[in-house]
Specification:
Rossmann fold; 14% strand; 252 residues; binds nicotinamide-adenine-dinucleotide; seven-stranded parallel β-sheet
């Protein structure tokens, strides 16, 4: 039997202490990678994952954390830019500071981490970047204009960076999850007037009638990050229960 596909490779996952990021880090590790999780709160990251504290909205902290990850892992082959925060409201609802705060994490965070990791990725023979984008980049969702704007930027950034780095042998792709059952959605439901009704509405919005799982998104990220996907760059892969592509009749 051949060795798992990530054997001998190293990966950095931002937002790797929870939800999609943690599921991705564990999956990459199970397939042979050495993995560092950069997170605001990395304390609960289980072994063999390496937890490193970093706020992706702080350039100095990101540079130090990426440097530490590269030293401890022995290089960086795969970067998963997954850290992100949510925002609600219409275009009238949020002040400029809130727009800046969410862009600082969801967009500029990717810029900072990628910039810091690039010298290491250029040394790799299997370099790949996967960004966690969202269905919100490709579908108009109500009350999500700020969040959607950041994810639209992530989609454009992914394609443009893929073009810039293709001759360096670095592939750049993103995943577009639909609503995924992570602690993030748990917090959203906790704040709803009627959490059960809200969960039912979110389920109903997905053609499959259920939320996406973190493991399903992790599997898509691992696919894009894998050396087996060597011809895939500049793509966005929907993991959304059919939400972006299907037009089905409501369940009776
Ligand atoms: P989550 O809240 O479970 O995990 C996010 C992680 O990111 C947390 O560990 C958090 O500490 C970390 N983080 C937040 N801000 C950070 C910062 N400034 N610096 C470093 N780390 C930071 O959320 P999740 O649902 O797993 O979301 C992960 C990604 O998936 C996000 O980019 C999100 O936009 C995207 N996404 C989520 C869904 C969903 O429905 N859950 C759908 C589409 C896209």
């Amino acid at each position: 039997m051949s060795a798992p596909e990530f054997t001998g490779l190293t990966a950095v996952v931002t937002g790797g202490a929870s939800g999609i990021g943690l599921a991705t880090a564990l999956l990459l590790a199970s397939r042979g990678a050495r993995v560092a999780c950069l997170d605001l709160v990395p304390d609960g990251v289980p072994e063999p994952l390496i937890g490193i504290r970093a706020d992706v909205s702080d350039d100095v902290a990101v540079r130090a954390a990426v440097e530490e990850a590269a030293q401890r892992l022995g290089g960086i082959d795969v970067l998963v830019n997954n850290a992100g925060i949510g925002a609600q409201g219409t275009i009238e609802d949020n002040p400029d500071d809130e727009w800046r705060r969410v862009f600082e994490v969801n967009v500029f965070g990717i810029v900072r981490t990628t910039r810091a990791a690039l010298p290491y990725l250029r040394e790799s023979r299997h370099a790949a970047i996967v960004n966690t984008c969202s269905i919100a980049a490709t579908a108009g969702l109500p009350d999500r204009v700020l969040y959607s704007s950041t994810k639209g930027a992530v989609l454009a950034l992914t394609r443009a960076t893929a073009a810039d780095l293709v001759r360096d042998g670095i592939r750049v792709n993103c995943v577009n999850p639909g609503t995924a059952d992570t602690p993030w959605i748990g917090r959203l439901l906790d704040r709803a007037d009627d959490p059960e009704a809200e969960r039912a509405a979110l389920n109903a919005r997905q053609p499959m009638g259920r939320l996406v799982t973190a493991d399903e998104v992790a599997a898509a990220i691992a696919y894009l990050a894998s050396p087996l996907s060597g011809s895939t760059t500049g793509t966005d892969l929907a993991v959304d229960g059919g939400m972006s592509g299907l037009r089905v009749r409501p369940r009776s």
